[in-house]
């Protein structure tokens, strides 16, 4: 019979919280991640919970948000004694605390991502038991992606498949969000989303309509950190729209927020030029690590990342449940 309790952490338990479920070699990295999230406003002390049994901390969970949102959206750092038979009870109690918190702040859904293989900073080992817990709690997979990374600390050379991408990027003309305004940018988002291989965007477009989906997606990306001159539309020398690039920054790394080519310009290699240009924007801004996701069905985009020198480091399942 289980005899644990679930409670918010205390200020003085911050370091202990970082160590729950972590291998010794990962504790420092987890603590840095927590400090980054706390400093950025993506996490708060009172959004973190532990499971305690006989005076020992045996489980943890933390609510997470985008800094500009201000209320929890997802949960991270879920760790339990996964080898125990009662892991479902412990995990359910922790997740229920987060769901109750989200509901109390007006949220309508809670998300969670599961990366396999396990990677920093969450190190989500025991994926089968994690999946079983999420299914038990009614979470459903909303999207599956492959994740790619450019790390300047270990990679050398230009982020491109040879000189062609850089040359093509240099031939294009760019107009920033500040130049063209939001309406023009939303129209471009709508156009590059047409015929997308991304299941989530495709389904949202069908459900909401092309323009409303583009507006919603644009607004969602605005919650990320970015500079207006990072978001750019690309044109041919003759003034024809080619596509767009929308780099962003998270508290832990930079990311290619969105990239796309309009239907009539596809198949001409422009995606490589746009990816080169977007990567250079982030590197020139001081980014060292760039991580980005693409839908598992979006093979052309995955090939573009690999050709540019990014490496595939994990696959991600995005889960969601109504609160």
Give an overview in words.
- The chain has helices at 14-19, 27-40, 87-104, 127-136, 163-171, 177-180, 182-192, 199-208, 210-222, 270-284, 299-307, and strands at residues 5-8, 48-53, 56-64, 74-79, 109-116, 140-151, 173-176, 232-235, 241-249, 254-261, 289-295, 311-322.
- By secondary structure, it is an alpha+beta fold.
- It folds into two domains: 5-138, Gcn5-related N-acetyltransferase (GNAT) (Aminopeptidase); 151-314, Gcn5-related N-acetyltransferase (GNAT) (Aminopeptidase).
- The strands form three sheets. It has a four-stranded antiparallel beta sheet with strand order 1-2-3-4, with helices on one face. Strands 5-12-6-11 form a four-stranded antiparallel beta sheet. Strands 7-8-9-10 form a four-stranded antiparallel beta sheet, sandwiched between helices.
- Strand 2 and strand 3 (56-64) form a beta hairpin.
- It is elongated, with a radius of gyration of 21 Å.
- The two termini are 28 Å apart.
Q: Strands of the largest sheet, in order across it?
A: 1-2-3-4
Number of domains: 2
Stretches where pLDDT is under 50 for at least 5 consecutive residues are none
- Top-tier CATH class of the largest domain: Alpha Beta
Number of strands: 12
Tally of separate helices: 11
CATH superfamily of the largest domain: Gcn5-related N-acetyltransferase (GNAT)
Question: How far from one another are the termini?
Answer: 28 Å
Strand content: 25-35%
Mean pLDDT over all positions: 93
Q: Provide the CATH architecture of the largest domain.
A: 3-Layer(aba) Sandwich
Helix/strand class: alpha+beta
Major beta-sheet overview: 4 strands, antiparallel
Shape assignment: elongated
Q: What order do the SSEs take from the amino end to the carboxyl end, as H and E? A: EHHEEEHEHEHEHHHHEEEHEHE
Q: Which range best describes the helical content: under 10%, 10-25%, 25-40%, 40-55%, 55-70% or over 70%?
A: 25-40%
Task: Give me the Rg, rounded.
Answer: 21 Å
The CATH topology assignment of the largest domain is: Aminopeptidase
Protein name: GNAT family N-acetyltransferase
GO molecular function, one term: acyltransferase activity, transferring groups other than amino-acyl groups
Keywords: Transferase
InterPro entries: Acyl_CoA_acyltransferase, GNAT_dom
């Amino acid at each position: 019979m289980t005899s644990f309790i679930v409670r918010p952490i205390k200020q003085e338990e911050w370091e202990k919280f970082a160590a729950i479920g972590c291998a010794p070699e990962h504790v420092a990295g987890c603590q840095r991640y927590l400090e980054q999230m706390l400093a950025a406003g993506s996490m708060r002390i009172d959004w973190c919970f532990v499971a305690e049994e006989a005076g020992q901390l045996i489980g943890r969970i933390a609510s997470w948000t985008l800094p500009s949102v201000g209320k929890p959206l997802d949960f991270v750092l879920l760790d339990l004694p996964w080898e125990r038979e009662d892991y479902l009870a412990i995990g359910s109690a922790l997740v229920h605390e987060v769901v109750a918190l989200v509901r109390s702040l007006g949220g309508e859904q809670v998300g969670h991502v599961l990366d396999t293989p396990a990677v920093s900073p969450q190190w989500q080992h025991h994926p089968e038991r994690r999946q079983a817990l999420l299914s038990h709690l009614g979470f459903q997979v909303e999207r599956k992606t492959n994740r790619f990374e450019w790390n300047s600390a270990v990679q050398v050379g230009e982020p491109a498949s040879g000189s062609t991408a850089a040359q093509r990027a240099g031939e294009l003309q760019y107009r920033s969000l500040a130049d063209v305004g939001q309406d023009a940018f939303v129209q471009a988002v709508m156009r590059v989303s047409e015929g997308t291989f991304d299941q989530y965007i495709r389904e949202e477009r069908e459900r909401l309509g092309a323009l409303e989906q583009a507006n919603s997606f644009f607004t969602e990306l605005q919650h990320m950190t970015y500079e207006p001159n990072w978001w750019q539309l690309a044109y041919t020398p003759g003034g024809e729209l080619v596509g767009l690039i929308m780099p962003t920054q998270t508290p832990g790394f930079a990311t290619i927020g969105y990239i796309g080519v309009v239907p009539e310009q596809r198949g001409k290699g422009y995606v490589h030029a746009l990816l080169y240009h977007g990567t250079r924007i982030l590197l020139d801004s001081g980014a060292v690590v760039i991580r980005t996701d693409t839908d598992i069905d979006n093979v052309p985009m995955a090939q573009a990342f690999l050709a540019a020198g990014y490496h595939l480091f994990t696959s991600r399942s995005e889960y969601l449940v109504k609160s």
